[in-house]
């Protein structure tokens, strides 16, 4: 069974009665975030599909390897959306895959009405180069670069 997008689920919910809630959950469990492992499993599956190692992602994202492994295993959690964006960009994720990863990490998705987010959306679509290139583009447009973890391992 294929995963339904949010709009499809909202449409179904519009026709669902309270007494049918359990049926809704059972019928749509593939489309719902039901566990804390949603993000690590999603990222690891994408990396396997793309043939990219976690080590390469951390190197390209300019994130300390030990910290990155802890994030992707679920051992550590960050509140810095920029860290997740760095990982997604370094993992060569599309904009759609990135938005999904942010949702699975329970972070706000990139929002087209916020100028920095809008530029990041274009960057994810066009893939102009490395994280350094991304930060240069953000700086050139008077915006904060993607922050690092602050850890020096």
UniProtKB/TrEMBL annotation:
It comes from the Bacteria. This is XRE family transcriptional regulator. It comes from Roseburia zhanii.
